[in-house]
């Protein structure tokens, strides 16, 4: 799994071979988190938008159906997810997701933090079953990059 976050600041995320890597080019810092130590938290978030089935979601989230709502002309299923794992709840109290039931993908996600902050993600221009240009999401470090 790979992702590029562009706002509020650019960050690159990569999950490969059991390790989550987060790179902040602004500070030239790379954070690596082994999934064995934080497996429940990492897997909980990966099920949200990277191929997790309804069964996968139900393993790590308590799901409430909030009805339907249109997003960009698509009638989505609006679901409220509360983490079952207390360590995940320390980072996120719940998440509302809007899922296209035909394609089984999230079009919008709203994260609610214990601090009462929120973060909303919108997904567009989604292409299924196509080759991905991994270069766009590559983490590029050098000898000056700090690591933790």
Q: What report would you give on this structure?
A:
This protein is mainly beta and 148 residues long. 15% of the residues lie in helices and 44% in strands. Strands 1-2-3-4-10 form a five-stranded mixed β-sheet, with no helix packed on it. The chain has a five-stranded antiparallel β-sheet with strand order 5-6-7-8-9.
Largest sheet: 5 strands, mixed
Terminal Cα span: 20 Å
Principal-axes shape call = globular
Give Rg in angstroms. 16 Å
Strands, count: 10
H/E series, N to C? EEEEHHEEHEEEE
**Strand share of the residues?**
35-45%
The whole-number mean of residue pLDDT values reads 85
Order of strands in the sheet with the most strands? 1-2-3-4-10
- The level of helicity is 10-25%
Low-confidence stretches: none
Tell me the number of helical segments per DSSP (H or I, 4 or more residues long): 3
- Based on secondary structure, the structural category is mainly beta
Condensed summary:
With 148 residues, the chain is mainly beta. It is 15% helix and 44% strand.
Secondary structure elements and their pairing?
Layout: E1 2-5, E2 11-16, E3 19-24, E4 29-34, H1 39-49, H2 54-60, E5 61-71, E6 74-83, H3 86-89, E7 94-100, E8 105-112, E9 118-122, E10 146-147
Relevant terms:
single chain; 148 residues; mainly beta; five-stranded antiparallel beta sheet; 15% helix; 44% strand
């Amino acid at each position: 799994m790979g992702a590029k976050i562009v706002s509020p600041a650019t960050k690159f995320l990569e999950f490969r071979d059991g390790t989550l890597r987060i790179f902040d080019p602004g500070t030239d810092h790379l954070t690596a988190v082994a999934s064995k130590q934080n497996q429940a938290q990492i897997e909980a978030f990966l099920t949200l938008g990277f191929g997790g089935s309804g069964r996968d979601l139900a393993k790590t989230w308590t799901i409430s159906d909030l009805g339907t709502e249109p997003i960009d002309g698509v009638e989505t299923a609006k679901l409220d997810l509360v983490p079952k794992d207390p360590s995940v709840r320390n980072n996120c109290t719940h998440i509302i997701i809007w899922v296209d039931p035909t394609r089984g993908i999230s079009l919008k996600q709203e994260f609610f933090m214990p601090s009462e902050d929120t973060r909303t993600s919108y997904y567009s221009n989604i292409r299924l079953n196509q080759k991905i240009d991994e270069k766009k999401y590559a983490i590029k470090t050098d000898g000056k990059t700090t690591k933790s």
